[in-house]
Inverse folding.
């Protein structure tokens, strides 16, 4: 049995919507985790999987905090006022809050761009937390370019060929201070600048990391394999696994990947053995 508490955490610049999944009162808490959601529509597409995983971890003895970052989901703030650095601070502050509640240093669990934010937060925290990555984005610059392509795609669908701009031009406009409406989101320089400079880099401390990729092939991509080598060279113990399943963060319909949930519980609970 598990418990679910829904509330708002008062932060310096507004309240953050949070869901806390906890083990039943009769069961000891074995670990803690803060979930860092992905960017834009990927957050909405993956809400169900994140909830299912949080519930499964709570059933295994973990307390899990799901937080909507500033101006995301049900948290306060306007999206065009958010900054990448602010989201990193949200994760650090949420970790401190969960530590005071549980007495346990929370693991940071990121999905897609949430992995970039979690990794940066981990590098700022002392002591550094363990990390759980789902389908990690390796480069914020690459993610930004992929997001900007939505603008070009919408122009093609609308037949607006006369005003079409190149991705590099659009990226530069935003980095120079302009806000762009893309896919229903007002992308500001505050987010774009931080995202553009973000790389998935390891913390200085020798922590543990579970790295999961949901792919059709039985092997990690060469880029992911090389990045894992960099993390291992930095002293991080990386448990990498490939899971066969749908890319639930981007499918048109809401989908699930039960194998990923089971493998995640197995990986993080093994750290305590």
């Amino acid at each position: 049995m598990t418990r679910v508490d829904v509330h708002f955490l008062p932060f310096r610049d507004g309240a953050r919507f949070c869901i806390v999944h906890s083990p039943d009162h009769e069961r000891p808490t074995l670990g803690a985790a803060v979930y860092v959601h992905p960017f834009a529509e990927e957050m909405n597409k993956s809400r169900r999987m994140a909830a299912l995983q949080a519930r499964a971890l709570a059933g295994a003895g973990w307390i899990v905090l799901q937080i909507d970052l500033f101006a995301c989901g049900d948290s306060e703030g306007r999206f065009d006022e958010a900054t990448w650095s602010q989201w990193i601070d949200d994760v650090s502050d949420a970790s401190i809050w969960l530590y005071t509640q549980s007495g346990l240093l929370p693991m940071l669990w990121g999905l897609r761009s949430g992995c970039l934010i979690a990794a940066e937060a981990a590098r700022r925290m002392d002591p550094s937390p363990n990390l759980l990555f789902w389908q990690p984005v390796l480069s914020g610059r690459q993610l930004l370019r992929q997001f900007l392509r939505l603008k070009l795609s919408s122009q093609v669908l609308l037949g607006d060929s006369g005003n079409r701009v190149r991705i590099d031009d659009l990226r530069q406009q935003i980095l120079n201070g302009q806000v762009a409406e893309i896919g229903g989101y007002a992308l500001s320089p505050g987010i774009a600048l931080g995202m553009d400079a973000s790389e998935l880099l390891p913390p200085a401390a020798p922590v543990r990391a579970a790295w999961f990729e949901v792919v059709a092939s039985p092997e990690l991509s060469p880029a992911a394999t090389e990045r894992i080598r960099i993390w291992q060279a930095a002293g991080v113990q990386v448990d990498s696994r490939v899971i066969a399943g749908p890319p639930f963060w981007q499918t048109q319909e809401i989908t699930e990947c039960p194998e990923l949930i089971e493998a995640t519980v197995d990986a993080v609970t093994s750290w305590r053995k």
Observations:
- The chain has a mean pLDDT of 93.
